[in-house]
Specification:
transferase; Methyltransf_11; methyltransferase activity; alpha/beta; about 260 residues; EC 2.1.1.-; binds S-adenosylmethionine; methyltransferase; Rossmann fold
Length: about 260
Amino acid sequence: MDWSVGEYELTAAQLLPAAKILVDLAAPKPGEVVVDVGCGTGNAALLAAVTGAKVTGVDPARRLLEVARARAKDEGLDVTFVEGTGEAIPLDDGVANVVVSSFGVMFSPDVPAAVAELDRITATGGRILVTSFPPEGPMMKVMGAAIEELSRVLPPPPASNDRAEKPFGWHDEADVRTAFEPRGFEVTVTRHQLPMRATSVQAHLERLEKHPSAITGLQAVPDAKRTEVAGRIRRRMTEVLETVNEDPAAFLITSPFTIATIRRR
Ligand SMILES: C[S@@+](CC[C@H](N)C(=O)[O-])C[C@H]1O[C@@H](n2cnc3c(N)ncnc32)[C@H](O)[C@@H]1O
């Protein structure tokens, strides 16, 4: 999926409080090298740079890297942004005292490769902190509804019928331990809450419709059916958003998220 399409910036603004919790927990010291994997528009990278750390952000989406560079310039911060993925990080072995990934590496399609890369770039005594959304919670419920509507008209992803094992979960301490303990890391997973507000259900829905995954999903629908499917998704998402809304006068949902803290022993 191309994360450069649409207006991911709107979602990034909502995820900023989670990036703040992540960077506070990572607690980079001035002069430490921090790498933000899947940095997007730079939420965690910029917060880390404010602490005096030397920061590099890595992301596959070129447009988001441009936005991140512009934000760094506006804030007078010296941050390097480079193109790459969690499975192929274009940095040297052992460079990072701290690796953070704010809902970034959770999108890696090749978890063993991403685990190997995070291990490879982490220095002796270094730490890796990864945020992720567990499958439950209002935000995932809304996304699940949209995916269900899309799956009525799109063919199933290749090999999905053969997938007997449950997918790796960065929110799941047992999964993260299995991946990192044999590599000499200690793992803890903590749970946090992310409130997301809007002036109304409609305003939140409009923001979601500009998310890269919404645009990419609809682009995959045959032209003749796109308008009808978009309408069906909108109605279904509105229904679910109204059910999960915690603020009848406006819009509020509180979504759980996790931070896996992975320290080299
Ligand atoms: C939900 S956004 C999070 C962006 C940013 N960290 C934030 O907190 O706003 C997901 C990001 O992961 C990036 N991404 C997608 N595939 C990736 C991969 N294989 N490895 C690393 N990042 C990836 C996307 O380009 C996007 O910027």
